[in-house]
Amino acid sequence: MEDIFSAAREGNVKFVRTFLENIENDLNEGDDHGFTPLHWACREGQMVVFEMLMARGARHSARNDGGDTPLHLAAAHGNKDIVIKLLQHKANVNLMNEHGNTPLHYACFWNMEGIAVELVNKGAHVSQCNRYDETPLDKATQFVKNLLRDKAKQGGQQLERKPFEEPKGLQNSNYDYSTLRGGSTGIDINEIHLMERISESVSGELFKGVWNNAPIVAKKLKIYGIHKRLDLHFNEEYPRLRIFSHPNILPVINAVTKQPNLMVISQFMPYGSLYDVLHEGSGIMLDQAQIIKFAFDIAKGMAYFHSLEPLIQKYHLNSFHMMVDEDLTVRISMPDVRYSFQDTTKVQAPNWMSPEMLRLNPASVEQRSADMWSFAIVMWELATREVPYSSLSPMECGMKIATEGCRPPLQPGMPSQLSKLISLCWNADPTKRPRFDQIMPILQKML
Q1: Architecture of the domain made up of 177-267
Q2: pTM of the full structure
């Protein structure tokens, strides 16, 4: 029987396309040995499938059970075109597998001269020892050894042997959340062990907890009154948020579907929200490259989110509603989507909301354009590390944005490309704001 792994391995484009169209399919899930579909496409040289997966956001940093990344497999099997593409996508050339081998070790062992040169040109260390005290140069023929040594010197590398150090984080996660999904029929609240409360908003309370021995975050929805149709609405709406098909979307894994404890469950994110990372002292080094990477992650996630038909309403884009994964990937948080039966008259965090969203009936607002304004505010927040309109009360802030088109000031130290992009995205005319798929190439060039 065909599955996504054999389809990626054999280049079955039709099957892969159908698989990617189902939002509950996780393109980064591994098989019994941890091989993702991207691993198989890279191993077998299936370029069309590779490009389909990368366009959807497949993680080139994913590791199989032996610690191999897709770059390890492409290099070991001589798939130079895919190696070049992975390098263009900034794949890490020096990640080690459980044996301490980097992709360059394999390229040298299998005498893949062209691939070895490409890797060294991108900074692959020629003197990195594996677990058995072997460097890539030790595994190369004399001709390739001399060639790579010269390339490394030209690139400023020191040729002293780098001793092996135990690689960290070989597994993508200590917990396999894919086993927790089950169907969309919901679970009993007694199956969840709730721990401390993390935060509270107008839409619900957030708790850290444990379910099936895995750390999770549970959001208990705020509801007003109990009635039969509320359960019906919730059971119709929350399955649409089980979006496993994009790495920049944080899905709802499952839910408690019985009143009065309606609750949605998601994967625990160790760094918390993007707001936490920017303003609460997470300890993450936020240089310009990381800031642009965060912006690119958000754009990719929102581009996919906006491609869904019908569009999921009542998601407000701001730094509270985006989570940061353990590999510093930003993910759009589906647990923060509001439901049709929740109170939508209370506005929280107007700092990130567009003028038309604050001024008009939300049903009459073009959601995609409003999200682009919010994204511009987030980019400003990323660039400045400041909370927008921090000196104003929520009411003052909302009034100034709604009636005066107020924006936070662009600061002289901002990169000119970023300032221009921010100005483009918070255009006063919603029809003149770009789409997320249009700005992704701009951010990619900035990377």
Answers
A1: 2-Layer Sandwich (3.30)
A2: 0.82
* Cβ atoms < 10 Å from Cβ of 105: 29
**Contacts of the segment 49-52: beta carbons below 8 A, 24+ positions apart:** 49/7, 49/8, 49/11, 49/12, 49/13, 49/16, 50/82, 50/85, 51/85, 52/13, 52/16, 52/17, 52/20
CA–CA distance, 276 with 193 (Å, rounded to integer): 24
Burial of 180 (0-12, 13-18, 19+ CB in 10 A): middle
Among the listed ranges 211-215, 229-233, 293-297, 353-357, which one has the minimum average pLDDT value?
229-233
Encode pLDDT of 294-315 as tens digits.
999 999 999 999 999 899 988 9
CB 73, CB 104: distance < 8 Å:
no
Could you tell me the CATH superfamily of domain 4-154? Ankyrin repeat-containing domain (1.25.40.20)
Write out pLDDT tens, residues 15-57.
999 999 999 999 999 999 999 999 999 999 999 999 999 988 8
- Provide the residue ranges of all domains of the chain, joining segments of one domain with +: 4-154, 177-267, 274-446
Q: Mention the CATH class of domain 274-446.
A: mainly alpha
